[in-house]
Amino acid sequence: MSAGFEGLDRVIESMRQPIQQYAEEVRTLAGDNALALTLFGSIAAGSFDMKRHTARNVLVLQSVDLELLRGLAKHGSKHGKARIAAPLIMTPGYVTASLDTFPLELIEIHQCHISLFGHDYFATLALNDAHVRLQCERELKTILIGMRQGLLAAAGREKLIAAIDADVAESLGRTKRARCIGAPRMGRVSNPLR
């Protein structure tokens, strides 16, 4: 542990110092309004690649304060260069109220996160299976429509098709991680243009 930041030892070594500086800055700017700072995604999974990823994070505040957001924004360029994404800003009430609206996003945070300080708001989320199933269905249908449009727009250009493939794989990954048990069958997609 460094400077009172739990879980910092789970972050890849090359990112520990930038993450620690970021967390210290957040604590200084937000003061008592900062309830928690949580890392999620590749930085928490141990698969972080400096060339491809940014350290995604959630800052849970007691209340959203415009002056605090402006203060954080002043340092955004510096953090971006250090491969740290702008934080998702939430309050405890927002997390609870979003369980039905953003279940896949919250599952993603819940499944692989590191709490640097404060209460772990993502450790025990009570998600409704029907909400998860509905968002999975919406995501899969959106992916299918996007694939069809992308294939038509690519007009046979292999580089564009490879880019579409990568985007689809990334989108499917989050949906797959949600373990959409009970989601209706989308049908066999042997040819996405059908």
What structural keywords apply?
single chain; 194 residues; alpha+beta; Beta Polymerase, domain 2; 2 domains; four-stranded mixed sheet; 8 helices; globular; disordered C terminus
Q: Which CATH class of the largest domain is shown?
A: Alpha Beta
Structural class: alpha+beta
The CATH topology of the largest domain corresponds to: Beta Polymerase, domain 2
What is the N-to-C succession of helices and strands? Answer: HEHEHHEHHEHH
Number of helices: 8
Low-confidence stretches: 180-194
How much beta, percentage-wise?
Answer: 5-15%
Largest sheet features? 4 strands, mixed
Shape-level CATH architecture of the largest domain:
2-Layer Sandwich
Q: What is the averaged pLDDT score?
A: 86
Shape from CA axes?
Answer: globular
Helix content: 40-55%
Number of domains: 2
User: Span between N and C termini?
Assistant: 54 Å
Strand order of the largest sheet: 3-2-1-4
Any idea what the CATH superfamily of the largest domain is called? Beta Polymerase, domain 2
Strands, count: 4
Q: What is the gyration radius calculated from CA atoms?
A: 19 Å
Overview of this protein structure:
The protein contains 8 helices and 4 strands, in the order αβαβααβααβαα. The chain is of the alpha+beta class and 194 residues long. It folds into 2 domains: 8-118, Beta Polymerase, domain 2; 129-177. A 4-stranded mixed beta sheet has the order 3-2-1-4. Helix 7 (129-154) packs antiparallel against helix 8 (158-177). Residues 180-194 have low confidence and may be disordered.
